[in-house]
Amino acid sequence: QVQLVESGGGLVQAGGSLRLSCAASGRTFSSYIIGWFRQAPGKEREFVAAIRWSGGSTTYADSMKGRVTISGDNAKNTVYLQMNSLKPEDTAVYYCAADLKSSSFITAAKTAFYDYWGQGTQVTVSS
Questions:
Q1: By three-state DSSP, how is residue 77 classified?
Q2: Are 81 and 20 within 8 A, CB to CB?
Q3: I need a labelling partner for 22 at 20 to 30 A (CA). Which of 30, 31, 42, 100 fits?
């Protein structure tokens, strides 16, 4: 079992920054792939970024490249999502998820391949 808890969301003005955290408990991340997704009202959940815990390689959604950075802290068993130059259209609930089986990023953007999800953290960007 893996428990994931997101934090760091909030209200920010357009152009601002936020750093989201995803803390894991129950099992260490080990070789998992940890992904960040977001879901705006009335829209499907969409991929933002992912990190392979072993080795630290990362992948990003094309729409987010250059504005977000995913990173991990082994000692704290926590993955971060740094978001800069935020826009109103970034408003969504942001979720982290753990894929315990995949060893590559081929399926990183697909929600069906993730085994555990956090409860989400709300990010609201005002114009």
A1: coil
A2: yes
A3: 42
